[in-house]
Design a protein that fits this description.
Distance between the termini: 100 Å
Structural class: mainly beta
Strand order of the largest sheet: 3-2-5-6
Largest sheet: 4 strands, antiparallel
Order of helices and strands: EEEEEEEEEEHEE
Helix content: under 10%
Number of helices: 1
Number of strands: 12
Radius of gyration: 29 Å
Length: 191
């Protein structure tokens, strides 16, 4: 016996969620806030000024819920203190496979860098090559803006040939050393 029945099917899809985790090059979580905008792949702005750690007690996380199916990307708008602004598009897709879980994406930031030049200037009359070639050591120590402790060492050596060829009109000679690509921060330079 066949009985007439009406069956109504509703085809609904689940909305998606994503978490962005902000880390440095060493995979350490960056607790300082960063601000992102969220776009669809076609460039349509979905949400703006989303801040990492704002609701997660400095955990470096940013979460967005209720996303329709489609392709998206995060773009950094304001970098955390001590880090450079990234132009990388952090991409993800919400679809039938991904909407049942919270997707996790990672944003890696590099610390801002600078250089420091240390120059040693000495009076040529104070140099006695019979006592050896004068060498001077520079010690640079401090904390980066991101809170990481750093120590660097460099040296300069005044060879007799260099002194003879580079003495200025006042009887001084100088040599410089450059600490290149050092993370920005507060440092103390000692000799």
């Amino acid at each position: 016996i066949i009985v007439d029945q009406e069956v109504w099917l509703t085809n609904e899809h689940k909305l998606g969620s994503v978490e962005l985790l902000k880390v440095d090059e060493d995979e350490k979580v960056i607790s300082e806030p960063a601000t992102y905008d969220l776009y669809k792949t076609d460039g349509t702005l979905v949400a703006e000024s989303l801040v990492t750690g704002k609701d997660n007690n400095g955990t470096g996380l940013l979460r967005v819920d209720n996303l329709e199916w489609g392709s998206y990307y995060f773009l950094e708008k304001i970098a955390p203190d001590g880090y450079g602004l990234s132009s990388e598009k952090i991409r993800f897709t919400v679809n039938a496979l991904s909407s049942s879980t919270i997707q996790r994406v990672k944003a890696v930031d590099k610390e801002e860098t600078t250089y420091i030049i240390a120059t040693k200037k000495i009076k040529v009359d104070d140099i006695n090559f019979d006592n050896g070639t004068p060498s001077f050591f520079f010690h640079l120590e401090g904390t980066t803006t991101a809170g990481n402790k750093k120590v660097y060492n460099r040296s300069v050596t005044f060879s007799e040939e260099f002194v003879n060829n580079h003495t200025d009109s006042k009887g001084y000679v100088s040599l410089s050393v450059t600490f290149e690509n050092r993370p920005t921060g507060k440092y103390v330079l000692s000799e």
